[in-house]
Write a structure and sequence with these properties.
5-stranded mixed β-sheet, ENCAP
Amino acid sequence: MNHLLRERAPITDEGWAELDEEARTRLEPGLAARKVVDFSGPLGWDYSATNLGRIEPLPDGADGLTSARRRVLPLVEMRVDFALSRAELADLERGAEDIDLEPLEQAARRMARAENRAVFHGWAAAGFKGIAESCTHDAIALSGDFNAYTRHVAEAVETLLRNGIKGPYALALAPEQYTGVVQSTEHGGYLLFDHLRKILQGGPIVWAPGVDSAVVVSLRGGDFLFESGQDLSIGYSHHDAQSVYLYLEESFSFRVTTPEAACSLVPPS
């Protein structure tokens, strides 16, 4: 038995397999950060800190001794609770295809959004600096005209190239911006989405809930590091006659090693 306590839940192995598959299906579209950063792990629930490869001196001791403390970045645990109807779970195991798993879907959306915000915009309480807030380049103001995005994204890519940051590049877009790009065509009927992909040297355009506006990120590797302890998993809390109380949980750290490898795009002031 591990800390998720799944063996204590009134759910069969087949039921857990169905829930795990549903969670993967609902989480994958929204986990934008993982599509543009280096992901390592999972390293296990008991993995507690990321080695930063640095030290900080301690006060000198007696007899002329010197000492230093290794610096680490602690992993954070993130959890979203939800409940499912026992009657719906029973029908799931009978083979029903139309099970109401809306609470699981809502939990997945909340978890993906929170993870994206931590990676792109930081989490001060956890000691994480995000990609957008770490950018050393001046932010590029977006126009209200989606057709102008080609110019803005090209400017961001040129900024990265000028600073020696090679591609390909990814464009992470807030949901509103993503919808506008997908629905837009330039003069002559050429899809804006396809034109942006060419500017990004073939890199992806990512739907990124939790992101403010847009960020262009180099995919060359080694610049943005996500370290997973326990990857996203469903755990069991308790149950009563009507419901089973579950949660989605993960542990992770995030750090930016090359702030110059991204360029933020912001709404016009």
